[in-house]
Amino acid sequence: MKLENICAYILALITAPLLLGAINRTKAFFAGRRGPPVFQAYRDIAKLMRKSAVYSGTTTWVFKAGPVAGLAAALLALMFMPLGGVHSLLSFNGDFLLVAYLLGVMRFCTVTAALDTGSSFEGMGASREVQFAAIAEPALLLGMIVVIRMTGQMSLTAGLNAFSSCLTAESGPTAILLLMAWFLVFLVENARIPFDDPNTHLELTMIHEVMVLDHGGPDFAFILYGAAIKLWILGALMVNLFVPAMTANPLVETAAVLAGMFLLAIVVGIIESSMARLRLLRVPQLLIAACAFSILALILVLR
Hints:
The protein is built from eleven helices and no strands. It is mainly α. Helix 7 (172-189) packs antiparallel against helix 9 (218-242).
């Protein structure tokens, strides 16, 4: 384990909440408002950590363990993500499956904690979360298989680093389909528009936010920070596809990845400023389209 790998991991831990700030500032710009500071997510997390958690008498240890276990799963999944030319902390053949399962564990912890409250609203949000995840996860896994097939690498780090060097005129459509599929997965997994509105306060339309209504204090801080880490992981999947082979300088590649991450955050902010969330009945159709993009990309690779 090299020092640069540890530094890259720490950099991701520190920078992840900044993506939320970049999204909110972009939305504020298009709305003609000043908006919250870029570092507002850090302030919110610090403020919540100073408070004490309040637990309902109907909840059990499952509710208390949910935020901690979910954050732990996100932090472990982050260890397998490279940062440009800097390799991840951990890597082995087939680790892409572990990353996908860790993201699933994170969701499972949030859903079980929501169900443990006994609230009908939180149960409604949990059911929607699981329904959409059941369609989004195949698109994510099929996309990972496309990367492995194109690069011949069974490790996520090696596959992402080698993907851009495998791009040719013939494989261009495959890369575009993969990027479209993963971008839709990125939006739904992070509860962004058009799938969900992170700023809504209407219980009947919320998905992710309704599952964490009963959390407070440090527990809610863990949830917010875990969501930022998840945003970073899924964003890094797309950005790392095209950056690593640009240069042999790890510092330049790392800076390029960071620039790509913030560019992605700005794109998300523009999308959320220019359109409304979809009706719930339309969401599965868009997720099926993401699966179709991944399947088409896989067919193009296998032909």
